[in-house]
Structure formats: C-alpha cells, structure tokens
## 1
Amino acid sequence: MSSLEEVVGLIETLYSPNPAVDVNQVQQKLQAIQKSTDGIQLANQLLTNPAYSNNVKYFGALTFTVQLNLNIESYDTFWVLFSNNLLHLMRLSGLYVSDTRTHASLLLTIKKLMSNLSLIFININEAEHANTEDSNTQVIKQWFNPINTFVDLFSKYGSNPTVGDNWTNVSDPVMSQLLQQSINCNVPYEDLVKFISQSPTFNELSLIFTEIIIEDVTKYQSRKHNVTKVHVVVHEHLYISTMALLNVNITLQVNQMHNITKLQLNDNVFQCTSAWINYISTTRNISSVGSMDVSEIFQNLLNLMCQSTEQTDNFYIAEKVLTILANVFANDPTLMSFDLRQQVEVIFLGISRLSNTTIDTSKNAWMLQYMNHLVTHEMTDELKELAICIVDYLQISNLDVCNKLFTTIHSNGTDISQEYIKVLLQMTNFPLVPVMQEFFSVRMVDFWSDLADSYVNLPNESLLPNSTQIGIEIFQQVINIYLPKISLENQRKLIEEDSHDDSAIHEFDDFRSAVIDMSQNLWSILGNEHLTNMLVFGIGSSDASILPEEAKMSAFYQIEAMTFIANSLMSDMNLSESPWILNILNKNKYFISNILVLFQVGIQMPATDKAISLFKINIIRSSSKMIGTLAGYFTKNETHLSACVQTLFQGLESCSMNGDANKEVNDKIEVMIIKTISIVCNICRQQLSGQYLDHFISVFSSLIQPSATVSSFTRSRLARSIGYIIECRVQDGPEEQAKYIVQIIDMIEILIGQVLDSPTDMQSQRKDYVLNLLGCISEFGSALIHDEDYESPALIQQLQQFHDFWNNDPFQVRSKLLAMIEKLLSSSAYNKDSSFVEVSCLILGKALTLPDQDPHFLRYSMSDITTFMLKYTPVVELTTCLPFFIYLLEKLTIQFKAQLSVDEFDYLFNEMFIKYYPGLIERDPDLLQMMINFVVTILDKAPHFLLTSKCLPNFIIPECLKLLPSNEKFTIVAVTKFWTKFINNRKYSQSDLMTMQSLIGINGQQLVYQAMYGLYHTQRSDLNSYTDLIRGLVAKFPMDTKNWLISALPQICDKPSIHENFVNRLYVTRGSRAAANVILNWWLECTALPSY
Amino acid sequence: MSSLCLQRLQEERKKWRKDHPFGFFAKPTKKADGTMNLQKWQAGIPGKEGTIWHEGVYPLTIEYPDEYPSKPPKVKLPAGFYHPNVYPSGTICLSILNEEQDWRPAITLKQICLGIQDLLDTPNPNSPAQEPAWRAFSKNKAEYERKVALQAKQYAK
C-alpha cells in the first residue's frame, strides 16, 4: 500500500479544481486502494485525523461505502463497518454541533456516513437471517430504528466526556459494547422530544438521517421488486419516530422549545416530509402490513400553511407546503384522506361539494390573499405552480363532480355542484393573460375536457331530466371564456413582453391546440346547434370590412379565435352532406366575407417584427384553412367561390411580390395558400371547370415563368390543381378537354424549349427550374387520373369517344412530349442527373397502372416506352438511374403482359439487366436487390414470362444459386424470397409447374447445398430469411430434399449426429415457428454458439 | 383491453397532457359513438428545427395492442412516407418499437415521439425499410434532400 500521506495527497489532487495530473489515473489508483483489504483501516485513519481536510474525510466515508458493497456477505467485516460508521458519525456530528458554521462543510461527510448506515439498515433487515431464530446472540439480525440508535448514542456522546475521548478508538471493547447496546435500544417519545429540544442542530441531524434512510429505501425498492421485510421494520419503528419528529416540527413545538417566535421552519422539515410521503406512496400497495397513515402530517401541514402570510414569512412556508401538496395531487392523490381533501377543497375554492353550510370560509380568504400576493408581485412561476396544484386536485373529483351535476345518483348534490361549477368557471376566467400571467385557464382545459368526456360516457338511464340543459349552459360558458383567452392578441402581448422567449410562444400554441381538443369534446355535448352555430354567427355577425378603424383589430382577433375553433369542428364534417351547416352558412351572409377579410388583413400586414409576423402567419393559417374546409359548401352554393379563389390568388401573388425581405414568412404563407387552392380545386373541380378555368390557366402561365419567384412546390401543386379542373371538363367531349391539356403542355414545353435552346451554362443554371417544369407535367398527369370513387356521368356516356380520341391523339400530345423529353435527355446537362430520368419515367409510366378502359393523355404505347428505355439506358448514369428504368419495365411488363412476347421479354431483360450485370449490378447490393425483386414481381404477376424465358435457366437460376450465401442482408432477403416464390407459386399454370419441377430437379442438390451453406455462414439475425425456403423445399419436394440434405450437410461441416437429428426433426415439424426453432438449433449446434 | 393496458394508457394520456415536447400532439381517437378509443391514437411529430424536415408536422397513428405495455404499440406514418427506415406501408422501423429488440414496458409515448423525431433526420443505416429513400439517402443526397423538403411542404402545419 502507498503511504498514508501519499494517499491523502492523491485525494487532494482528485478533488482539486485544477489537477496537475491525469485525474483518471489518480481515480483508478485510489479505487484500487479503497477496494483493498486495507480499505477499512484507511477509512478510519482518514476520518479520525483532525488535521485532514473535509475532502479527505469525505473520501474516508466513501471508502466505507466501497467496503460495504464488497463485504455484504461477511458478518464480521460487516459489523466492523457498522460500528465504525456509527462511531465516526457520532464523533463528527458532535464536532458539527459544537460549531455549525465552522464545520458546515463537514455535513457532507456526515450525510455520507448516514447513507452508509442506511445501506446497513436495509441489508440487515432484508437479509435472510432477519426474523429468524439464531443461537448466535452476537449476530445482529435486525436493526429496528436508526433514529433511536442515533439519539441514544449521541446523548451518551454528549453526556460522558470520558467515553467521548474514546470515540476515535474503533477497537476499544467498551465502545464496542456501547454500540451493541444502542443498536436496538428503545427511545420513548418523551426522550426523543427532549433530545431535539436540546439543540436545533440535533433536530436537524435527526431529520436529515431519517430522510436519507427513507430515500435510500425508496431507491432500493425501485431497483428490487421483492423487498418486503425492511418495509415492515420501517412501518413498525422508524415511521413512528419520524412522524413524531415531523409533527413536533410542523406544529412549531420545536420552535417554541428554542424560543423562536417568528414563523419559520427549516427546509429539512419539508424535504424530510416529501421524502417520507414519496416513500409511503411508493410502497403502500406492496407493503404486507398495510399503508402508513400520514393524515396527521397532512392536517398539520394544512394548518401551518394557513398561518403563513405576507407579514409572517412572506408566504414562504405556504409555498413549501403547496409544493408538497402539488406532488401528492399529481402522483398519488388518494394518499390524502377524503376528509382532508374536503378541507383542501374549502381552502382552494371556498366551497365544498358536500355541503355549503358548515364550511370555514376564512380558509379560502387565506387562499385569496395568497393569490393576491402572487398576482400583485407578478410571481408568475409561483402562480403557475398553484394552478397546477389546484387543477390536479380538481381532477381527482372530476367524475364525482360529473355525477353530481348530471345524474340522479346524488339526489341533493345538484345545487351545490352548480355553485361549485360557478367557482370553477370564475377560476378559469382568471382575469390575466394566459401563459404570460396566469395558468389557471391553461390548466383548466384538461378539467373541462375530462368533464365533457365523463358526461358523454354517462349511462342515459342515470341522467337527470334536465342534464342536457345543464351541460349546455356550463359548456357554452366554458367556450365563451376560452375564446378571448386564445386570442392572438394575448400572443402578441406575450411576444411584446419578451420577444426572445420562444418557450412562452410555444406554450401559448400548445394552449390553443389544447382548446381545440377540448372544443371537439364539447361538440359531442353542444352539437352544431349550440357550438358551431354560435361560432358561425359570431364570425358573421356583422360586416368586418366596414368596422370603424379603432374597432377593427379587436374584431379580427375575435374572428380569428372563432375561426380557429370552428375550423377544427367543421373540417371533420363533409359540408356538402351536412344540411344543417349548409343552412347556417347560407343564413350568415357575412361569414365567408369576414373570413376573406381576415385573410386579406393577414396578407396586407407588413411583417415588420416577430409579433406581427406570427400574427400574420396565424391569421392566414386560420382563414386559409377555413376556406379549404368551406370547399364542400361551395359545391352546393358557389356564390362566394369566385371571391375566395380570387382572394387566394391575390394572396399567392403578394407572396411572390414581397421579395427576399420576409422570405421565411412568405414561404410559409405560400405553402398554406397553395395547399388551400389545391383543396378547393380538387373538391370544387366541377364548379371551377366553367368560367374560372381560363383564369386559372392565365395565373399558371405567369407563375411558371422563370421570372416568377414562387417555389417549385407551388408550381407543381398549381399544375395538379388545374389538372383537377380539366379532368372534369368532359361534358363537351374529348377534343374540348384536349385543347386545355394541349394548352398546359404547350406552355410548359415552350418554356423548357427556351432553356434547352440556351447556351449550355445557362442550361445548367436552370436545371432546377426545368426539373420543376417537368414535375409539373407529371403532377398534371396525375390529376387527370379519374378518381375511383367518383364516376362522372358525362365521362361514362362518352367513354368510347375519349378512349378513341386518346388512342389516336390527334393533337400529338404524347409524341410532342416524348420528343421534348428525348431532347432533354440528349443534353449532357440533364442526362447525368437521375432526377430528370426519374420524372421522365414517371411521365411515361403515368398511365401504366390504369385500367385499359380509362382514357389518359399519357397512355404511351409499349413500343414508345421500350424504345425510350433501350435508347437511354446506355446514355444515363446507371448507378443512380437504373432503378427508375426497372420501375418502368416492371409496370410495362404487367400492363402489357398480353401483348409482350417471351422473346421480347428476354430481349428487354437482357438489355436492362444481363448486359449490365458483370460491371455494375453484381457489385451493387441495391441494384442486385432491385433486379431480384423485379424477377419476384414478375413471378407473382406474370409467371409465364419467366418460366418460359431463356434467361431463367441461363442467368437467373445460376446467379440466384450463387447469391444464396451472401454477406449482404438485403441480397439474402431478396434471393431467398425469389427461391421461395419460385418453388411455391399459386399462380403457376400446369405447364409452369412442370417447368419449375424440372428445373428444381436439375438444380435441387445445388440449391439445398447453397441454401444450407449460406445458412451456416450467416449471422443469427438473417436465419429467418432461409427458413421459408427450407420449409418450402421440404413441403414441395420432401423425398428429394431429404436426400439432398443428407448429401449436402456433411460437406458443410462434419457433425453427422447433429445433421441426422436436424433432418429427422425437420421432417416431423409443422408450422413456421417450430421449423425456425429446428433450423436455429442446427445452426447453434453446428456453430457451437450459445443459445440465449 | 386488460385493466393493466387501460390503466397504463390513461396514465400515458395524463402524462402527455401535462408534459409533452413543443409542437408535438397526441390524442386518442374517437369511436363511432363519440367515446374515446384509448387504444388508437393520432399524433403529430414536428421535424427538428435546423433540419430538412423542419417545415412539416408528420402524422402518426399509434395502435396499442391488448398486451400493452408488455408488447409495444404499432406506430405508423402515412403509407408511402419517404424515409429510409419507414416501410412502404408506413410502419416505422425503430428498435424501441420492436418487441424483440429494445422495447421495454417503461418506454413512454413521449420517448417514442422523440425517438421518431430523432430518426427522421438521422436514419439508421442498418435498417433500410424502403428502397427509394434508402437508395437516394446512400447514393444521391441531393435527390434525397429535395424529396424530403418537398414532403415537408406537403405536411406543413
């Protein structure tokens, strides 16, 4: 061992703020010493020498912890550690008591020694021998009450100075005997009180000790679930002493003992109380001796809280007690008895749900004083804590309140409950700004939401006859309270208060979202009649455009709040099929115009600062979402449709005009507007297909110009939107519709052509723009696909004409477009970029998944597509582009399976895969996976091609055999999927089946060898990929597979008995899970890896 | 639904309403009769600020099996969602949602949502679940970022 001084030096280095040497090395060295057999001796020396610093002493206590953990099983060493810890605790506590200021830093070491003793307390009482008869009386089997031991020993330490001299001598037999006697001594209540009356520090140390023990027991409980014995000991002994200690403190008797007249209480009292409540709450459902009652503590805490005032302690104690109560109400409210909770109710609300005759309103007066204090001093955080505490409390009785209000269960409770609700409504309507100044309204959202939920779930037979009326009255008031609360005016105030505090803004947003959820719950009760109507009438009560200037902003805030909620209710309805809503909207002539005014206000608002920017975004969001929601209404009443569309386009235009100054704000608004336009166009396509279409095309024409500053998202969304409208423009026949299609495609083609005709560097610069235009064609094409759920009678009547028209394509839309795409892909600026290939493939394949009878202007022929693929596969960058051609080939093969010959399939397969296999595909697991997946898809959709293809025996089977043992998970997954599908495919014809059987007959032996070899060499997580294949082989070729296995397995590894066992078990196993287990066992046994 | 499952889901709802990360939402859906379906939730995950995902709030459906919390919930993004670790069906490939991997009954809804938010911008290279996003992510970052940004706009708040 190093010398003591050397160790002390290392400890000082370890705790030094700027160590000169490597701390990790020092730590490792010290840890080794702590764990050594000299650890205990070292700890004693470090703790005893008065010359050593408190850091060194703390390290001594820590060394005991290490030794305790090492010697938990050895009784002798354990007792040495127990007695030494006690001894040092007494001595150092004595030192601390003598002068708490000078020895303040010693408290850390004292706490560590206490923590060691709590570990000893747990271990002794949880040990096997606890509660058992044992002849060895020296063995301490239980330690009932460390507080008693502490009181007894510390009293002896203080009263006998002669003995006191020996408190450093750990091997003194007198001391040892003294300690033995103290372990389970009895300390009556009077002696305990007398002890703490001697000095406030005695009281403090006793509280700290019991707090440390109970926190450690709680932690121990959370780590080990079978803890029981220690809880019994705690309940029967330590709990009693601690409750006595806490109660004399909380009732201020200790203060009287020490002549303290001022209302004050050491924080230790509250910390200790919290720790004990936490412990009792954690263990009350698992303790074998029942729950420990804390009613007296709670009662005393409530009394104490109500004594706390601004004059006495500036409500310091009130805050501490409320923190404890908040913790109880949040986590385990029933820990407090019903009677006590009733008292709390009176304090918090000044009313009781049970009776209003016997309540002491002075207690509530105290609460009002406290709230007043918090509000006056702008103590927002404390007010928030109080709100959380009160609302958590209210939630406990939510169901009871609901029953009393709405049911016949409590015959006399209704009047009181209605009074009670009034108080709650007043509290919700706390007259300050939510989030910024008050939290009652914020937290009460959950209460009202739950009350509504509970009401909806009540059985009808228990409801009061007037319950509906009561519900409507209450919940309408709730909505009326929240409407001004969620106003954006409050958000503005928040930002003006502190523009950098984003968390408050976020909290306000969350509050608004919570109000939305609540409103949806309330709708179940209030319905359209009492909620949606109210909001719609509120929004459309008067013409917002002609309000006097000074009243305008206030009106807009109100309209926005109502729109925000109304939209959340109406967006879930199909307005075109809701006569009620249609009727209300028809009656409110200002409703839609006010929504449009709101939108326009937002658009015109200059985003000069953060508050205005957020306001602008929020009102545009609310109003544009409402316009989108109203689309269903416009299908029944298109009076305002034109104004809406015009306003939306004006908004879109303004986004592109504002330049870069407010780009972030404008980008967000642009997305909102274009999404709304898209919704309106989709739903109102029929209404818009008349007079509006030309207007749309004209807007589109200007927005796709290179000079327009709109985003690519907006352009493609607009292309799709126009597509929706043109899609239903069928009443005048195909030619009429085609003219519009041609107009759009021409517009785009011209613009792309202009770029293609420009110099090469310009072409490169405009790549994103060209890609965007090409994407517009794809989006436009998607919109022209008819909705499966909607059948247009006009289209059905003329289906054949449309079909013939697009077959002939008299305007040559397809060929012109194909020529443009080809021109594009011939340019070196574009053909190396996979994005262009991707969109080109999307355009060419657009109609490949459509049923044959569906006409579409992008229905390219098989020849067009194959020529395109064959022409550009050699030109483009295949590493990134091949997947898009595979996508196209897959769709093409499925769509044209009736026309495609096997030779053509083989040719295409050769040109697309085999040709690039050696140099590219076989080296790239992603491409390999895609190729195999293509084969699997063809096996599924058109197996005949593959079974009759020359590529199957000549390329696919040999390669897929080779790939069975692979290091790439995705290759393994794909190739095993291929083989499984190949041998087990329900879509085979008789001839296909015979071909497959013949091929397996030829390749079966190798297939089994390769599969088992791959399985043997793969990692555990990939074993399942092989399971289905092996099961398939056993099921389809039972006899052959058995022989193939018997032949193959010895070549893989030389473990004949394992192989034999495997084959036998495999053939008597049913079900995939069982087969997987058999295969797993074989793999584990062969590889000699452990099972887990 | 077992009482343990019900109790835990009520607890999850309470916890979430009291404390959830900003910008996220999660709530039980309603059954046809208007009552709450605690076993099926709707949620929204905002993309992290400063990432290509930030513009969007991505919708999730969370279905809790009867055996919850012994078994994990099934969490799905919309079908066709573009992300390397999201299957074409929308099922998310995340170890904490896998019973055979890192699922533990103590995992909360908040942890799941934060885990998914984290996954959005840091895909797991060991668990590709869809080909297009995976390929673009590993071979063509520009294409990947372009598509993610487009998707973010599609799911913009």
## 2
Amino acid sequence: MKKTGSQILLECLQREGVDTVFGYPGGTVINIYHDLADYPIRHILTRHEQAAVHAADGYARTTGKVGVAIATSGPGATNTVTGIATAYMDSVPLVVITGQVPTPLIGNDAFQEVDIIGITRSITKHNYLVQDIQDLARIVKQAFYIARTGRPGPVLIDLPKDVQIQSTPFEYPDKVEMRGYKPTYSGNLRQVEKAANLIMTARKPVIYVGGGASGADASEELLAFAEMTRIPVTTTLLGMAVFPQRHTQSLGMLGMHGTYYANMAVTNADLLIAVGSRFDDRVTGKISSFAPHAKIIHIDIDPTSIKKNVRVDLPIVGDLKDVLKKLADALEKRSDQLPALIDTMEPWREEIDAWKRGYPMTYQSSDSVIKPQYVIEQLRELCSEDAIVTTEVGQHQMWTAQFFAFSRPRTFLTSGGLGTMGYGLPAALGAQVAFPDRQVIDISGDGSFQMNSQELATLVQYGLPVKIAILNNQYLGMVRQWQELFFDRHYSQTRMELPIDFVKLAEAYGATGFSASRPDQVREVIRKAFETPGPVIMEFKVDREENVMPMVPAGAAINEMVLAS
Amino acid sequence: MKHTISVLVENEFGVLTRVAGLFSGRGFNIESLSVAPTLDPSASRMTIVTSGDDRILEQINKQLNKLIDTIKVTDFTGQDYVEREMALVKVTAEEDTRAEVLRIVDIFRAKVVDVTARSYTLEITGAPTKLNAVIDLLRPMGIKELVRSGPVVMGRGL
C-alpha cells in the first residue's frame, strides 16, 4: 500500500518504538502534524523549539531511549541548534526532524528556508537531507541506529515538504547496512589483560568516571570493579550519578570546582583509569600538570576521545559494560593476589582520608541569610530517593554537583559540555513526561531560569508536576564570581537589576509559587512545594555574593586550588 | 611532516563538506585535496595532503574514520606508493624564450596543449617534486597562469 512521506516518517517512528515526541508545528511540517493524530504517538507542544529539543534530551537521558523532536524549517530549525549542540557535547541520542521548503525551492532563499544541514553539520553525529521519498524509510532507520549506537549523539533529518506529500509503497528495512559505520563494542582481551597487570602493580590508583559510563549504563559493572579493588573513584559532572557519591570510595567530582581530595588524589596518582571520560579542560586544568605521575588507562567507545587531550599509556576501545566486565573477570583470575594488592594500597587510602578530613567539601553556614548550599542539602534531604534532578548552568549547577550527593544513575541531568543556560527546565519537562510518577526537580538560578521560563506553560498544560528551585541572587552569579576574583569586582552587566516576582510569574501561568528569604523558611517551602500538586516554583532569596569554592583558577593546575574566598 | 592520506567515502551529497569541515573545525591543515568517483560509482576517492605531528595525524585519521560516510582511510606515509599530480602552466613565450620553453617541455616529458603567438600552455604530469622543478625553471620566463590538480596516489604492487 502506498503511503505519503509524512505517513512513512510516522510509521518508521512507531516501528522504532517511539511513543513520545516533542515539537512545534509550522508551515513545512504541517503534513506531519496532520497525520500525527492517526498514530499512537504522544506529542508534547513546547513553547519554543529549543525547549522541544532539550525536553527530548531530558527524555533520552532519563530513559536511555532515543529522544525525538520536530520543528519547522527556517527559524524553527535554527531554534533547535542550541538543543542539538547541547546533546552532541554530552553524547545524548536524539533524532531531530526539521521540515524543509519543497525541493525545487531549495537554494532560492525561499520563505523560512535555511540550510540546516550545513548549520548542524558540526554539531550532529550525522545529518540527512531527504531528496527522494524512496530513501526516507532507510534514512529514518539509519538515523535511529546511528543516534543510539557507538558513542550516542543527535542525528538530524531535514525533510522537504514535497517529499512529505509524495507517496510510494512503504517498506521498512529490517536491517541497517552502512559500510562506513561499525562501532567497536567488544574490548580487546589482550589490552584488558595489560590493564589488569597495571592495576596489580599500582600503589596509588584512581578511577576517573565520565558521562560515557552513564550512557553505557555501566554503573553496576563500575561498582563491582571498584569494590573488588577498593580503588577510589572520582567522577566528572556528567558521571556523578553513575557512582554513589556517599560510597566510602567516592571522592566526589574532580576539576575546576571539584573536591580538594579528588584533585589531590589525581595529581598524586600512579595509575589513572579513565572510564568514559574525555579529559575536558574543566576537568584537567593545566594539562601538563594533570596526573603527572600516573600511567593512564583510557577506556572509551569513541577512539577519537583517546589521546585527544592527554597522552595515554593503554587505550581500550569498547563498550564500557563489556570492558569493565572483562576487567573484573581478569582480576578475578588474580583473586589470590587481590588481598595483598588491597593491603599495599592502604597507605594511599590513608593519604586520601587525611585530605578528606583536612579539606572536606563544606561552606560557611548562616542563621540570617539563606546559603545556596544549604538549600541544595535540604532539597536532597526532603526529596524522594529516586528523584530526578536537572540544573541550568552556573553557580547553582556547581553547588548541586557538590552537595546533592547523587546515588542513582540517570537521575542527574545537566549540560556539562556545552554549558547551556536554559537547559534545566525543558529537560525536567522531558524527564517528567518519561516518568510521570517520579519527583522531578529543576535546580536553577534566576538568570538561567529566565532563558526558557516560557516552558511553565507547557508544564501546566500537560499537568507535569516539575518542582523548580530558583536560587535567586539577582546576579549572573558565576560570571560575577569571576569578576570578583579576577576583574577587581567590576560587575559589568552581571547585575539582574529588575527584581522578578517569581511567585506571581508562577501564578500567571496557573502554577504555584512559594518564596523564602530566611533560612528558617527553607524547609517549609520545600515541604509545601513537594506536597502541592502540579508545577511549583520555590524561590530562595540567597546570599547574593556567595562563591563556589573550592576553585581552580583558569589555566592553573588542579592541585593549585583556591579553597575559600 | 607532510602526509598523503587516501580516503574512500560514500559518493553522497555533502561528503566533501563533511571532510573539509572536519579539517577546518579542528584546525587541521589541508594542503591539497582531489576527489572523484571510483570504479564503484557509489564510492568516491579523496586524496588529501596534510601536515602535522604524530598526535595531530592520529586525530585526523580517527576523526576521518568517525565520519559515517567514510569507508576506509589509508595514510600512505612510510609506504611504497605511486604519486602523480598534473599541472597546466600558461607561460610567456616570446621570440627569445620559445625555444627554451620547448627544451624544458622535452626534458620533463611535458606536453604543449595550446599555442598562441606569445604563449604556450603546458601539461605536466609527475610527482609533485617534479612539478615544482619545472615550475621553478619556467618562472623566469613569466608564468601567466598555473593550475595544479593536487596529487593522487596508489599503493605499489597488488
């Protein structure tokens, strides 16, 4: 039976198991939207295309499935760009579908025409312009396959309006054949054996875990490997929820705003086992002083991540689940030597414990003004154990990383690579759509929140009970902090002069708002917010000039930390 | 150090931009690039001359392989291969230099492909070093125009 291009697209989505899409209609996707009602696919209408992509991203990061977003051509397509780049930097599997002007008009500067393939080439894992309806089913199949396999990432399909209208017999390909794309999943056993040997001779090893371990769902394998060797574990921002932060072996986050003890451990380590991490500059600081005494084992699915920023002594390309399992097996074979190994590492554990005791992650508490770190601690204490937390970008994001103590994988959604302000609210929206019965909290600053606050309307329309905590300091706090420390307190354009009434803003959208300006109100506001059905804004008027500490100044080595301002 | 890399890619629209974009986006250098379909019309062969240290070359190799449309990447550096490039040179040929130009053509087994009263257009094929040598010899006579194809390469033997 013949089907139109838009029907074929929707048919393919259904076969890929897509039950939810996020999007925004427009002239060149009107046919898709017309046919959408005939398919068992839920569409969430966001108030901005950027938010649709972030929501699909939040959906993908929490479920592990491919997130799908739809936007029209021209401005609809360009509005997806920040969302796509965010997902690309953090390796999130997405398929983004954009409408395009009819093929005869492409290149004519037609109304709402933009070369979105050209624009997104460097921020997608791959992208397609569908020029022939005969290619459509194959392209959709490939797009989903590429998005979720190997190192995951966003794939964009640009679908001209005339291709949506044409019709052809529909046939869904059963398999994907691409001679140029064959990701390596199985870790090389000889390399794994070498890694096991390096571990057996290490005296000061550290495991350094990144977001790849989340994407690979490797937290169980990681925990097993870490516990059998008792090697301390530090994580990046995106790796935080992969390893329980309250575990005795946890060193918390490393890098610019990491813990003193994580940075000291890495600097003094003789073996660094990098697991799905990419040696980002916010992690390494001055690259020549990063882990200067350590041999480096780098396990990653993406060969281009290996030796990109640092020298690597032993690369292992493969799926982290597979490699960590094999590594545990290889160590199991040496189980008679393991107790001796653990014993020889005792001085190392003592050294780390001394750093932990000497310089714990802490802050100056107050009875008169709300400390932002206190809010994070109270949110953690009062929320449910399986709550999903998103953040925007800035000081509140770092305080969340430092003080929330995540314990379950896929519960912490944050824009680590691109650092996108305005990510958290739509990502929370997507997470809440995926898990309607779980608690979803967006921790925000007053600056970031205003970048996508229109999504309050979407939350209310669909009855999505996201709880939003705004740490309001009426500053672009992170930039202000840099201005304070490195630019003689010249607060150029970082004062958010106009005080916003966030309670009224919530009410304007039909949501609920609470505000706290004293420390003794914090718990009460959180409790009330968690008990109130529907979306709620909790505004906390926090200490305006609190800084995120400790801190590695830009360009310094990670053991050269400023501990307090 | 200079490297000659041969990349087999899907013969699809936009592939050239993907490869070129990869180089410009990561600050890698392209000295020359030539592209044409292969015996199998669904694939194209790109020959790229680039330079950089070992670390950069490793990244270029990996990043090229990472492109979905890339089928195979071969770095010919250190291997036994045949390398050929073609140049078209329009050189001034006045009364006093016409004979000298033709002598150079003869020595280097070049070809005259267009003649006017005041110029010759030459076709020269060979390794890039040979082309450089010819161009250096012709330069004093006055090169009006020069077009080089960039080299193509093939491994020796079966």
